[in-house]
Amino acid sequence: MVDINPGNAKGRALDIWQQAGVNNFSTRTLGTDDYSLTANSDIVVITAGLPRKPGMSRDDLISTNAKIVSSVVENILKYSPDPIIIIVSNPLDVMTYAAFKKSGLKASRVMGMAGILDTARYRSFLAEAIGTSPKDIQAILMGGHGDTMVPLPRYTTVAGIPVTELLDADKLNAIIERTKVGGGELVNLMGTSAWYAPGSSAAQMVQSIVRNENRIFPCCVYLDGEYGINDLCVGVPVVLGKNGVERVIELQLNEEEKAGLETSAKAVREVVDAYKALGL
Ligand SMILES: NC(=O)c1ccc[n+]([C@@H]2O[C@H](COP(=O)([O-])OP(=O)(O)OC[C@H]3O[C@@H](n4cnc5c(N)ncnc54)[C@H](O)[C@@H]3O)[C@@H](O)[C@H]2O)c1
To answer: Which among 52, 69, 158, 251 is least surrounded, fewest beta carbons within 10 Å?
Structure first.
C-alpha cells in the first residue's frame, strides 16, 4: 500500500497483517511512500484521491484527483512497465480515462471499478425487497458511475427467475432510483464515501484477473466504437482474465436501454471535456 502519508499506509498495512491469523492468510502486507517497493507489480489498484463530502457530486473532485491519479500512474510506471491498472478514485469514469491516456498502456490493461459496486448495491436492495439472498441475484448495469447509471431489469434474475416475476414495477423502479444515488446515501450518513463494498468489489476484479477466472462484470473501460461510443471510458459488461479486459460483451439493447446509455455517456463526456479543458 502506497500513500503520500507513509504513517497511514504503514499503519493500515500493519492492521491488515495483524488479522492474518484470524482470517487465515499468510501474505505480509506492507505500507510505504516509496514507489520502488512496488517494482514489477502485475496489478495496481489506485484509490488515492479525495472522497466526496455531503452535498458534493463526484465531478466536483476532477481537478484535484486528476493531478493525484496522474502522478500515481507516472510513479507506478517507473517501476512496473506493463501493469494492469484498476482505478477506484472518483470521478471514476474520468479518472479511468485520465489514467488510460497518461499511461499509454493498452486499453485492455486500464479499467475502473464502479459497476460491480453499483450492481452489488442494487442486488442488496433487491434481496431485501424480495426476501432472498443477494447471492442468488444476477444483474448487470451499464453507463457512468453517477446518477445516470443504467440498471437493466431485463437482465436481472433471481436464481434464474426474471426479477419482474417477483417484484412489481413500482418497487423495482424505486430500487433502481435508490441504486443510482446509492453512493450519495452513504456519504450523507457517514460524511465520507463508503469502503467495505468498494474494497470487496475491487478485490473481486483483482481475483478474476489473478486467477484467470474470465468472469463477466460491468467495468469502466475505454470504448473504441463498442455500443456506438468512441474515445470514452464508461461501464459495460466485460470478461476479466489474466490479460485484463479479455473482451467487451455487446448486448442487444432495446430502445429505452440504448437511450439510457446514450444519456449516461453524454454526461460522462461532459466531465471528460471539463478534464481536458484543465490541460493537465
Ligand atoms: N469507484 C468507486 O465506486 C468508489 C467508491 C468509494 C470511494 N471512491 C473514491 O476513492 C477515493 C478514495 O476514497 P477514500 O474514502 O479511500 O478516501 P481517503 O481520504 O480515506 O483516502 C485517500 C488517500 O489518498 C491519499 N493520497 C492523496 N494524494 C495522494 C498521492 N498523490 N499519492 C498517494 N496517495 C495519496 C491520502 O493520503 C489518503 O490516505 C475517492 O476519490 C473516492 O471518491 C470510489
So the answer is: 251
Residue 8 alpha carbon, nearest atom of ligand 1: 39
CB 3 near ligand 1, within 6 Å: yes
**What's the CA gap between 182 and 210, in Å, rounded?**
29
Chain CA centroid to CA 136, Å:
22
pLDDT band at 270 (very low <50, low <70, confident <90, very high): very high
pTM of the entire predicted model: 0.96
- In 56-177, the DSSP E strands lie at 84-87, 110-112, 137-138, 141-142, 150-151, 157-158, 161-162
Which residue puts its alpha carbon closest to atom 14 of ligand 1? 51
Tell me how far CA of residue 161 lies from CA of 44, 151, 157, in angstroms.
37, 17, 5
- With a 6 Å cutoff on the Cβ, whether 49 touches ligand 1 is yes
One-letter amino acid of 243: N
pLDDT at 59: 78
Distance 132 CA to ligand 1 centre (A): 33
Q: What are phi and psi of 236, to 5 degrees?
A: -145, 160
Q: Whose CA is nearest to atom 20 of ligand 1?
A: 51
Is-contact 217 205, C-beta < 8 A?
A: yes
What's the rounded mean pLDDT across residues 122-127? 98
- Cβ atoms 235, 219 nearer than 8 A: yes
Average pLDDT over residues 152-165: 97
Q: Is the model's pLDDT at 279 over the cut of 90?
A: no
Other Cβ atoms less than 10 A from the Cβ of 145: the count is: 27
